[in-house]
Amino acid sequence: MNKNITLALAGNPNCGKTTIFNNLTGAHQKVGNWPGVTVEKKEGKLKYNDYDLTIVDLPGTYSLTPFSIEEITARDFVINERPDIVINIIDASNLERSLFLAIQILELGRPVIFVLNMADVAEAKGVQINEKKLSQLLGLPVVFTIGNKNKGTDLLVETAINEINRFEKGKESRPIKYSQKIETCISKVETALIESGVNMEGSCRWNAVKILEDDKVVKAKLRKISDASAGIIFQAALECRKKIQDLFDDDFEMVLTDDRYGVIAGIVKETVTNLARKRIDMSRNIDLVLTDRLFGIPVFIFFIWAMFQLTFSLGAYPMGWIENAVSLLAVNLEKILPPSLLKDLLINGVIAGIGSVIIFLPNILILFFCIALFEDTGYMARAAFLMDRVMHTAGLHGKSFIPMLMGFGCNVPAIMATRTLESRKDRILTILMTPFMSCSARLPVYIALAGSFFADKAGTVIFSLYFMGIIIAILSGRFLRRVLFKGEEEAPFIMELPPYRIPMFKSLMIHMWDRGKMFLKKMGGVILVGSIIIWGLSNFPRQISYSEDYQKKIDSVKYEYAQKTASASNQEIKALNLQLALILTEINNKQEQERIAGSYIGRMGKALEPFFLPIGIGWQPSVALVSGFVAKEVVVSTMGVLYGVGNEGGEALEKALKKSGMTSLSALSIMVFVLLYVPCFATVMTIYREVSAGWAAFNLIYTTMVAWGMSFLVYRTGILLGAN
């Protein structure tokens, strides 16, 4: 007995769909109306080997949005009647226009094949489509046909039957993924649908998208099933729609449409060559330069350099204001509060710790603003596209570079963003590479050290560190792929190229503030706790055995200068007092350094010294680096507490660092180590949740080894070259 199979033909008007329908069915066709509507229905029969095929010609349409009877009829047939496969007829000479409907058909989650019709017309226009690449990207078969010459019809039927068999054996359609914000909304509504327990025709993801698009037909069906559940689901969708409206000042439907065209642009970019365009819009004109294989990379490097130069130079002004405010607060509390251990904790622990970090808030906000600018203009996707070829050296593709770029802001959401990657191997490899991308928490360390030792070149030094992180990440990915993921194939992907947008200032500020809040929350959380712990470790035990009697030495120096000033003139007295102040400061600093060296934290530093000395890092910075495992911002606050200058501002820390014997070369070694060593505790825990405890432990050990090795290389090379 022959097996019955239903094939549905879908496509734009004038794509050659009816010609192919006639080729398939010949005289075995009938025309009628769809039940309940006045749209013409075409149906035909075909015997093929052991199969009885029913061919249904769906109404020609440009999309599946519920604006016309044709659109609703076409999609309802696919969802409700559940044909065995949808054959999407595409005008090969007009691929970009045809793909808008094709993307929506793919969203239905049904078996699909693409038929690139009018292949001869496309060839005559100079259009060359890589059907194998297109098939690989979308996870479905692609067939060329010439309908009016009846070429490719047999292959079409054979391919369709083979695809049906593959689905019967467990194959699933590959979902089209959009931008992170759209995907977050879809996921939220999907969750609400699943939790409600309602059973609707079509995939859960497709229904979620339709509800977010305010699809009246789908919403009516949901209300009919369960009005109570509908209310909860619609509320979740409304919140998402409002969030998108606030961010983009546009309806969800328009933002999603832009994303769909972004996906289409990515498909065309990857699969079409020699395209004789009738219309080249502004985005394409810009892309001629920004995505050019020769000029695109230097332009990308320039943008990144400009971002960090702007972050350092523009941020210096508000940074100075905050620094003065912190110093003023510390000075006033010093005058008001009576001497006590609590006073020392408040001024030298809390204010010294938090104050040494919060002054970098303007720099971090500027960095987040620039990243948001890249995202909202559409340039972030172009950067990933440019890096596609480079990422292939690590066995990945450009799509993996997007989470890595997000790592410039924070590694935690960057690692979570790897969920969009389809291959588990790609996810793990990208997760292991991402911590090498310098997050904003490391920026205060760079600014403190680069500003102290490299002055006007600080912006370039910081840019070089970020660029070094990218290079190390890619080289590391190449190494790990060969060692840990040998022989695994790369997963195909579609690089979304959204149209360029003029970013909304409101949206940029929302992005900047949302990320800036994470930094501020750390002020009252992990950095506050860390500063108190560091203060405690540096102030106990209270009884320290000093190498000399510092109080006696101070009294002796004061007595000596009192004798000198007794017979001196007013001008000489001023000079002597200035000398006395400098000598007393030097004695106090020496005593303080000896006191901290004898404290618990000093003993920890001495224990760590053998590990860090070969890379030019003394015991104070080594303790700060260990504390950075909690949060990288704590590195600066720890140095502020250890050097006892947190309430005196950044200049005092700079002087203390130089007096301690730190050189520009050792400062560079510290910055390289901070760039590459173990990410913060939150990042390690995120790796644990996203992958496993084993991979989290591996990342902790591996990043520290890479950091020590690179710092050793930088420091020892610098010594050989005579740097200091």
How would you sum up this structure, described in words?
It is built from 33 helices and 9 strands. The strands form 2 sheets. Strands 2-3-4-1-5-6-8 form a 7-stranded mixed beta sheet, sandwiched between helices. A two-stranded antiparallel sheet has the order 7-9. The protein has 724 residues and is α/β, with parallel strands linked by helices. The N and C termini lie far apart (87 Å). β3 (40-48) and β4 (51-57) form a beta hairpin.
Secondary structure tally: strands: 9
Structural class of the secondary elements?
alpha/beta
Give the DSSP E fraction (strand runs of 2 or more residues): 5-15%
Which stretches are low in confidence, meaning pLDDT under 50 for 5 or more residues running?
none
What is the general shape? elongated
Instruction: Report the C-alpha radius of gyration, rounded.
Output: 33 Å
Query: Helical residue percent?
Result: 55-70%
Task: Output the keywords.
Rossmann fold; Helix Hairpins; 7-stranded mixed beta sheet; two-stranded antiparallel sheet; 724 residues; alpha/beta
Short description:
This protein is α/β, with parallel strands linked by helices. It has 33 helices and nine strands.
Helix-strand layout with pairing:
Elements: E1 3-11, H1 17-25, E2 29-33, E3 40-48, E4 51-57, H2 69-81, E5 85-91, H3 95-107, E6 112-117, H4 119-124, E7 128-129, H5 131-138, E8 142-144, H6 153-168, H7 180-196, H8 204-212, H9 216-225, H10 227-248, H11 252-271, E9 272-273, H12 282-290, H13 296-336, H14 341-358, H15 361-377, H16 379-386, H17 388-392, H18 401-406, H19 411-416, H20 424-433, H21 443-453, H22 458-484, H23 505-523, H24 526-539, H25 550-566, H26 570-598, H27 600-612, H28 619-627, H29 634-642, H30 650-659, H31 664-676, H32 681-690, H33 693-720
Parallel strand pairs: 1-4, 1-5, 5-6, 6-8
Antiparallel strand pairs: 2-3, 3-4, 7-9
